[in-house]
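Example S7 (structure tokens).
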């Protein structure tokens, strides 16, 4: 029996994780659930799964959650605040952590899970983008398993030889990783129409249903940029061996090219329950509730190179990845601020890359040697990005 903590249980990945777990009560026991604000949904999840610990963002929400659970005689301990996310990992008795908080807020509890030797199911790509080196070191020191949940990285993980490790990759003939990208809702939109894109248009992804932040990232292709950095840390290949391919149908989730000419691909429905189930049950496979793929029904699978003029965020991410050091942390923080402002109506779609670029240019890059350095750079980049947004609004 696996004991699972789900960080971000009320989000898109969190809800899909609970859906897979619900089908397998003989295999999985939920011991911790966390959410930022959604008291009612978290309460309903606690009533269904009766975890040991539930964490919510603030004291007021915690009081409401406690009251609901008390009324139903649910013995779950209710905690609140960012430090309590670490308690959900360390004090709940979990052996497996689904890291599905969106953005930098997931970094500290995900690192705690790595250090504590948990099996980490990593959806929260921002944590790895910010702290790749430290995070991979923490995983190694903790001795736990790291299983990528992001569909592309999960696909690559499935296409690599079972004994692949960062040190043995050359002898195993792995040449290149090909990350596929749908190109989002604006792949063919005339460039002159991009200026007036609304948040709802940006969040209407053609193939995937996801949280709003990652949906905007998919529209700008910053998501693929973050995923490039994520792949770099997860699989340890040089950046020039990690390629991005536009594949609008989102059926081939990513590929590995081998030295003998073979290309291994993982195919499936665009449904996150497949990679989630894979991570939860690895190395076994379990039913995930996903409809079977019908290739005969698909008219065609197509592939093309991404257009960096249409997707300047992708170019910015390539360049931050190449620079290394704190640049990916700054890129990620500026992007989070710009996307939040776009979703609130304070910034236009085309200004997202402008804010990210200005912030990257403003902040001096340096090497990353501790979590404090990363968190300081993250906070600094957020302030700088916010100031640039303020200046644009004047
Ligand atoms: P979401 O917005 O739907 O859910 C985010 C979850 O995190 C919610 O439970 C929310 O309560 C919690 N949260 C948000 N801010 C928080 C904070 N400050 N402190 C504590 N908790 C907080 O997001 P999502 O789409 O489920 O994405 C989650 C992560 O998974 C992201 O990093 C995303 O990039 C990654 N991911 C998502 C998908 C997908 O299909 N949704 C695919 C691949 C990777
Ligand atoms: Mg992805």
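Recovered sequence:
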């Amino acid at each position: 029996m696996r004991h699972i903590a789900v960080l971000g249980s009320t989000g898109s990945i969190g809800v899909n994780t609970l859906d897979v777990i619900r089908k397998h009560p003989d295999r999985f026991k939920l011991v911790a659930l966390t959410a930022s604000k959604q008291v009612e949904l978290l309460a309903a999840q606690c009533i269904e799964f009766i975890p040991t610990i539930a964490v919510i963002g603030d004291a007021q929400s915690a009081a409401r959650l406690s009251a609901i659970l008390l009324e139903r005689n649910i013995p779950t301990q209710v905690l609140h605040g960012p430090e309590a996310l670490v308690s959900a990992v360390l004090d709940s008795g979990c052996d497996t952590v689904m890291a599905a908080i969106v953005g930098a807020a997931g970094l500290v509890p995900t690192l705690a899970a790595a250090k504590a030797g948990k099996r980490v199911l990593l959806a929260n790509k921002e944590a790895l983008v910010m702290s790749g080196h430290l995070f991979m070191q923490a995983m190694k020191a903790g001795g736990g398993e790291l299983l990528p949940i992001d569909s592309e990285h999960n696909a690559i993980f499935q296409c690599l030889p079972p004994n692949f490790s960062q040190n043995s990759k050359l002898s195993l003939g792995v040449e290149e990783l090909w990350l596929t990208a749908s190109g989002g809702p604006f792949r063919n939109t005339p460039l002159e129409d991009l200026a007036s894109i609304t948040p709802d248009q940006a969040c209407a992804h053609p193939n995937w249903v996801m949280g709003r932040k990652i949906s905007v990232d998919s529209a700008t292709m910053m998501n693929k940029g973050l995923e490039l950095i994520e792949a770099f840390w997860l699989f340890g290949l040089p950046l020039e061996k990690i390629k991005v391919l536009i594949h609008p149908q989102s059926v081939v989730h990513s590929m590995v090219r081998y030295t003998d000419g073979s290309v291994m691909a993982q195919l499936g429905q665009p449904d996150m329950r497949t990679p989630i189930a894979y991570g939860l049950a690895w190395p076994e496979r379990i039913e995930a509730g996903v409809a079977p793929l019908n290739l005969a029904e698909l008219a065609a699978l197509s592939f093309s190179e991404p257009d960096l003029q249409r997707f300047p965020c992708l170019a910015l991410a390539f360049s931050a990845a190449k620079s290394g050091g704190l640049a990916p942390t700054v890129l990620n923080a500026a992007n989070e601020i710009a996307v939040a402002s776009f979703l609130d109506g304070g910034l236009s779609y085309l200004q997202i890359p402008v804010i990210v670029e200005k912030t990257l240019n403003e902040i001096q890059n340096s090497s990353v040697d501790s979590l404090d350095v990363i968190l300081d750079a993250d906070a600094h980049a957020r302030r700088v990005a916010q100031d640039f947004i303020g200046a644009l609004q004047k």
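Notes on this example. The chain has a mean pLDDT of 95.
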